[in-house]
Amino acid sequence: MSLEVESRKPVVSEDGLPVEELVVNVGPSHPSTHGVGRFVVHLDGDVIVKCDPVIGYLHRGIEKMAENRTYLQIVPLTDRLDYVGSMYANWAYCRTVERLAGIRVPERAEYLRVIVCELQRIASHMMGIGAAAADTGAFSMFLYAFDLRERIIELFESLCGARLTYNYVRPGGVSFDAPEGWFDSVSAFTAGIDKTLDEMDSLFFGNVITRGRLKGIGVLSAEDAVACGASGPVARGSGVNWDLRKHDPYSVYPRMEFDVIVGDNGDSYDRGRCKLVECYESARIVDQCIAQMPGGSVKAEGLPRLIAPPPGDAYDHIESARGSLGVYLVSDGSPRPYRMKVRSPAFCNLALTSKLVAGHTLPDLMVVLGSLDPVFGEVDR
Amino acid sequence: MAKGGVGVALVDRIGAALNRTPGGIILTSVDALVDWSRGQSLWAFPMGTACCAMELIAASFSKFDFDRLGTFPRPDPRHTDVMILAGTITEKMKPSVKLLYDQMPDPKWVVAMGNCTVSGGIFYYDTYSVVRGADTFLPVDVYIAGCPPRPESLQDAIVQLRELVKQESIAPGNRRERKGNLPRVIAEGGDAQ
Amino acid sequence: MSPQHDLNYHLAQLTSDLDARISDHFEDVVIEISPLNLLQLAGELREIGFDRLGMVTAVDLGDEFEMVYRVTSRALSSSAFVKARIGRVDAHIASLCDVWPAANWQEREVWDLFGIDFVGHPDMRRILLPEEWPGWPLRKDYDDPNVIHRPDYI
Amino acid sequence: MQGAFAQGILFVLGLATAATAFILVVFLANSLLSPHDPSPAKDSPFECGIEQAGEPWVAPRLRFSTIAAVFVLFDAEAVLLFAVAGGLRGHLTALLEVGAFVAFLALGLAYAWRKGALEWRS
Known about the structure:
B: alpha/beta; Rossmann fold; 4-stranded parallel beta sheet; D: Methane Monooxygenase Hydroxylase, Chain G, domain 1
């Protein structure tokens, strides 16, 4: 593999003098690229002239692996796609398999899936906001955010035994029913969450330094957001009112009472703040789910041990913390999918970097990356 | 001082001289002191690529608190003693990991965290771009199983690493010889040195 | 006119001009078209209101590739699949970067993993694999010596 | 007066030798006890795991020169003020003199500010 050296061509600097650019690798091993992304940045002074993202440092070929595994064996693979939010990565895949194989999922399993996915959204946002805050110097916010994330991980641990890669949502339902007293601990958690989130809001987003650093950086207009395929908080931060839970409702979301958080001027501040305010809504959804929780089994009856859906293809998507996470499956009737494609929101959101960053200074690259919140397991698949 | 030349000679002469003292008492006591101080402050280079990086972050924050072991994550290979490989290593990432390992000052150790770095883990079969195990190109000292391993087992690895640190010595004779970069276990047909 | 009726009117008009075959698939519309007038179809869809390109991918059907695009219209609140089949040898198709900039990276990924060239793409490079990676991994006939295939337990 | 003066000198000398001794011991022990294994990779610059892309020696931009000049000017002023500050207490005339000095420089600062010399980017 060639660690090639960029060729450098003279550029007319802002002072009007022909001066060479400085090419810098904000490379795969960098604390604030949130993983193994490499950004070849052409600098004029400290102003970014051009930023060329190079990704693929975590490309494990999950789509190729999926072609040699049965439908049930692929669920642990989807955990490693968006490893900050494995629950909804599983769910997106399972929804497509259920649509392909025509499996009906019992009500209780759907409610459990919504609870678990909304808690995972809060945990994932905490990771996203915390890392973005640490990049602008507010390290205490990272610790606050991680404290909240750890409490959610404890809930997941008591539910399905794993801390990060849960393998909890399976085609046809969920793997375990909620243990004794789990709902009470979830309610206790969501009761106290509003106070913590207010604290975090004033600590970070209310801080004048953060406002100075984040406002007006990486402005994305609404048309660009839609045209460039951005989704989730990145698109909603620019005023695009599109949330799959509300505008393409699935599972039991139509029965939920929540509103979609939309920013207005599409800069890093609004994207970040959308994530935080969404957590209030997620907590409300969790409370409603616990209130309406029906009884019954959590797995579909009569599910063959080896799911072999009829030939055909299916696509389904959910609203993950990063956007619309879709899975496209093509089946040829055998117990192994013929083709699996993951439509990754982090991949499409990251494609905006070079457009958002041009003209800003180098530290703003970290701010924009923090607001785009890429997870490279899902970007590189 | 010539580049490392005279300095190395000086250290070896002193080490050898200390070695000749009866029973090497002075040497072992100096070694013990040096190794103890190294073991208590192993700064970690978090080579975090995938899911294990999340556990590495969780381990170094307030709930599990890596700092009480003296392990402080530093993003620069120059300031670190231990490279913690956290996450899948792909073919495209391999030269970077090797370069970062070479850029770390001696003495240095490698902790392979998670199944992906130990043996390719869940990505062992059917992938074209995953390196099956970090010990194919790096001398790994401590392996941690788990996908991802719990933060407690990660911290236990640091405690175990201190045993390895105690084998280091300033005298050339005792210094644990590294056979180049080939992993010792595989190089000698399985008998761990 | 309700959005659904509006959509059917447009689609009916499409089938006549570009001889596209329309069928339904769950709640989405599937438009099969020949790769030659894909670009024209994309422009038309963009006018109708499909302003969001969600997914660009390819499926290796053995003797030929099938390109699958999924476009969404928030105004008409409906989505459509666009499928086009291209030959396997020297596979190439028109790039949709001018219609939807979202296609840029996704087409680079299809080029990287399938080897399908996109005519008119501003920056046709590999995106995930190193530049000099031999072969196209997601093709069915891709054989790589150091890939270890999973034994068949079931 | 003599004893106190000598005592002061001795204290300063003692402090200086103790500090240098401590630093020397640390550096000597470090160079003696640590293994020396120089390699070309160790000397190569660290750029996030990739070999360095392009020449780092690029001509600095002209626009930074103005703000650098303004900084040096007011830094020198601060140094002078420190020197004078000790003797100012209780002398009104001295205060007026230094005040005039500072006023002139403040005028310069206002001019530079208005002309945009302090703008980070032109």
